[in-house]
Amino acid sequence: MAQPIVAFTVVEVAKPNIGENWPTRVRADVTINLNVRDHIKDEWEEFRRNPAPKLAKCLTNAYYSAYGLRKHDVCFLITVRPTKPYGTKFDRRRPFIEQVGLVYVRGCEIQGMLDDKGRVIEDEFEVGPEPRPNLRGESRTFRVFLDPNQYQQDMTNTIQNGAEDVYETFNIIMRRKPKENNFKEKTALYAVLETIRNLMNTDCVVPDWLHDIILGYGDPSSAHYSKMPNQIATLDFNDTFLSIEHLKASFPGHNVKVTVEDPALQIPPFRSGKGKKRKDADVEDEDTEEAKTLIVEPHVIPNRGPYPYNQPKRNTIQFTHTQIEAIRAGMQPGLTMVVGPPGTGKTDVAVQIISNIYHNFPEQRTLIVTHSNQALNQLFEKIMALDIDERHLLRLGHGEEELETEKDFSSIKGYGRVNYVLARRIELLEEVKRLQKSLGVPGDASYTCETAGYFFLYQVMSRWEEYISKVKNKGSALPDVTEVSTFFPFHEYFANAPQPIFKGRSYEEDMEIAEGCFRHIKKIFTQLEEFRASELLRSGLDRSKYLLVKEAKIIAMTCTHAALKRHDLVKLGFKFQVPLQTLNLLLPIAEEDIVPKQKYDNILMEEAAQILEIETFIPLLLQNPQDGFSRLKRWIMIGDHHQLPPVIKNMAFQKYSNMEQSLFTRFVRVGVPTVDLDAQGRARASLCNLYNWRYKNLGNLPHVQLLPEFSTANAGLLYDFQLINVEDFQGVGESEPNPYFYQNLGEAEYVVALFMYMCLLGYPADRISILTTYNGQKHLIRDIINRRCGNNPLIGRPNKVTTVDRFQGQQNDYILLSLVRTRAVGHLSVSQMDVRRLVVAMSRARLGLYIFARVSLFQNCFELTPAFSQLTARPLHLHIIPTEPFPTTRKVFQTLINGERPSHEVQIIKNMPQMANFVYNMYMHLIQTTHHYHQVEWERNLTLLQLPPAMVEEGEEVQNQETELETEEEAMTVQADIIPSPTDTSCSQETPAFQTDTTSNQTETTPSETGPSSNPEAISALSETTTTVTGAVPAPAEANMPQDATSASAETK
């Protein structure tokens, strides 16, 4: 990724600091010409014109390219003077520099792109109605920072020794790929180390109730909510419970007393509290009758307005009693540790805790920290489904682009929430204009937020107070129900709401409706008052800071982003600097709004067991102490220490410094009380048995036994999970074309063949994922998929082809797993960490798990015995039912429990070549059957139309010619590119270089949902003749498959 430099100019050399002999800052302008293809231009331009309808809804008309140069990206300035003629082939045996003519290399850091006036665009543009600058032509200039020390040395050498000026010779600028440009702020390790250095010179304060636990001494349970002095007596569980029966089942062993006796009034939401208040934590006896009594009070949420969207969003999950205990603990002050095995609803518990804190303590702020962007996005998507005002949500970092929503919750470069505020402000002012028109008030009350505020104060409030004085209950006189509707002043404004607004059944009901209507109006002006600062703050940077420190109540980021931006966040939290030219305009606003404090009261950490101890500690210090004390009230950590720990690549740090132990794991080891979720709802009960031995009392939710998808067998496969033994292929098992780049061609071909077989039966490709334990095998499988079925609409691509480590936290219906190794077990069971990798691998599948491995190697490993004893109890050869299309009605219990044989014939596949040949014959027969089906349908349609004989004969001739041609082309395509014939050795050939680059950089494959299941008659015909096809499968022969198991592997690397 390089471009020729058109012009290079040093524009600033700042004076040195006192005591130094090098400049404090050196900046230069680099001009390049981007008269290139669009995808290449995307790699360099910082922003492009916006073609996306999602972003078109925003008030800006441009967007930042995900691959363009950004601030702080590192590039290289290069001087090249070729000495060889054009077209000379590069010789790897000779030195690199003398062949390419490389003379100088200097590093630089991007500050930004310049506009037509020579200003850095990022610093000068204003987010709002003004569009971003539309640069003309193809010439682009970047402002870059140079290394001051290197610049001083180069200039000294030029002046004293008469050397040439390096900075007048640059002719190429080079950048790395965006995902590899991991210098400075983009490197998590660098950010963590820099933060550690800064914290060593900072007065760090953690809450007193956490101090001893973090240091590792004292009572491990001292921070549990039951021992906190400020325990809250009564909590509003909001929509946590679905019914009073659900509430009673959630507190086993408690005596639940409801304050109302009428069953019709015992509906959620509920408030609950202990029957006896705690006075002395050391004396209180938890086993007393009073301590076991729970007082429950139903309450009604006030009416929010007559429109359907005014109705609060409600939780629909029936939490178990352990999940309720986790939610209850998370709402109380103190440290809450939740251990969540796979599929136990960790994310749902976290979201409900956040929602309940938001409603119980609206003045408090909550910080959400996760290890990965994917987990953070999953949290956000579920938070949006609950009753939380979206204006209080803020997502920091660059992972927001993957959120599956049209709304933008980020603050990247001033976008996201700033755009939402500006767009929402216009919508609300339009509502004010409509209200003003309905009331017949002259003027322009909807001009600004300030004029709208005056309109509400003098026009809306006066009418409402007059209305209340007319309809309120006067002494002993019975109120008239009709007066509530008759005197209501906003009938015309609510004319677009569902009618009738007032039911006329009772005075209390109609008054609640009227008050709900007024709450709807009042909320409009309350939001406009909050958005008023966006009219006065013109800079997009100031607007985004204001939203961060003032508006957001729930702020989410990854632990890496917290380390990257800790200095900025702490500085921003202390004082929000308002420009002097804006200060006079802000005088009418309260002082706390001018200089807000970015503080937070609660921290929730998801994937806590995957976060480094120091990365866990950093979010605690994103705010400076207040009067020497930390205001942190709650710390909720949710994770699973039985799955993979943080990744430490340095073996010395990993083994001798124990850095791979997360703070979550350390807390568990020292005995901090935990809430262990004990019911999973992800996988079949039989699949859960493969990993539940690692947990305490891990069971299954009722729907795992009741829902049809869990009780129905996997079509075309006899078992729902199976360990398939793969022997050496042509005398070769695992191979290592490069150090630690392990591959196994036999397993890779077997896995892809099973994937193709499932797709041919009708399985959607996006419901199948392929996992492996090594990167080398991952790249090999991707190469084979691209060669076998990459462009075939009947097969498609799997949802993902990746490693087990990268797939942690994700799931899919069907998992095909390749364990690769045949000589040594490798990193699957050498240590406790590797047993955790096994737990991750076994827990990713919901309905089907098929493992390809050398059974004789893995079954003798002691650490793997609990799982492999169950796997080896079943046959070690793949059992398929090729005549059973997807979906099937066969129950899995008929085979597993009752021992009944399926109605279709079962075929045993003994090795990989047999499976490959079977899939090839099955595919070719399906093509022929489909062609015959379409030909019969065409002839039947002609018969129904009753065309003249001549036209029929002519049409048949044309149709036959076309179908014969299509059949020939399809067969040639299949034999040449998609499905190798039994005598095809193409899969042993080296992959072209361009194809290797594509697959090696591929992170996710897009599935094709098209399958043969759309042709039931073709499937039926296939079922009738499968016996003939299977009988025609030739015996495995060495000539039928690749000759060199490592050739494709080496080329892939």
UniProtKB/TrEMBL annotation:
Residues 982-994, 1043-1053 have a biased composition (Polar residues). Residues 995-1039 have a biased composition (Low complexity). Residues 319-566, 597-650 form the DNA2/NAM7 helicase helicase domain. Residues 659-853 form the DNA2/NAM7 helicase-like C-terminal domain. InterPro entries: Aquarius_b-barrel, Aquarius_insert, DNA2/NAM7-like, DNA2/NAM7-like_C, DNA2/NAM7_AAA_11, P-loop_NTPase, SF1_C_Upf1. It comes from the Eukaryota. Residues 1-49, 69-176 form the RNA helicase aquarius beta-barrel domain. Residues 230-311 form the RNA helicase aquarius insertion domain. Residues 267-290, 980-1053 are annotated as: Disordered. This is RNA helicase aquarius.
